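Subject: for your reference before the review

Hello V.,

The reviewers asked for a structural picture of the protein, and I figured it would be easier to keep everything in one thread rather than splitting it across files. Below is the amino acid sequence we used in the manuscript, unchanged from the supplementary table.
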Amino acid sequence: MQPGLTGWAQVIGGRAISTAGKAALDVWYVRNASFVLDLEIVLRTISLVIFGE
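And here is what came back from the structure prediction:
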């Protein structure tokens, strides 16, 4: 996957998750990628930008 500005690991774990945990979430994302999941990531990103962690 090409890296982007946000991702599943960022919206789920944020700063509180380890590098290994982020890598595991990235693998999960690659295996479960879909338009609906991408839409959820975008919506969670917008929420995090507006309201913070």
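For the response letter, the relevant points are probably these. The chain has a mean pLDDT of 88. The chain has three helices and no strands.

Happy to draft the paragraph if you're swamped.

O.
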